[in-house]
Amino acid sequence: xxxxxxxxxxxxxxxxxxxxxxxxxxxxxxxxxxxxxxxxxxxxxxxxxxxxxxxxxxxxxxxxxxxxxxxxxxxxxxxxxxxxxxxxxxxxxxxxxxxxxxxxxxxx
Length: 108
Fold this sequence. Notes:
Blueprint: H1 4-12, E1 18-22, E2 25-29, E3 33-38, E4 43-47, H2 50-59, E5 64-66, H3 70-73, E6 76-80, H4 86-100, H5 103-107
Antiparallel strand pairs: 1-2, 2-3, 3-4, 4-6, 5-6
């Protein structure tokens, strides 16, 4: 079982990650936002590829569900933190973080 404090700690431990407000959520980004956390610390929205989203939702449907709109069709996926393990969060954060790093930085 994880919570918003776990997500915040783990996200900020990833290289280059910063936190800033994003509407009614906290956003974690490197070059782009890769995860947001709701104000209550109960859900997080991760940016995956559509294939990764499908995999995560099949692997752990009690934790991951596609966002129910156009953002979801682009890979944005909601995680219920109370249903997630810290391993679930770490793997999801690392996956989303890798996509948020610009291609220029990845080549270094």
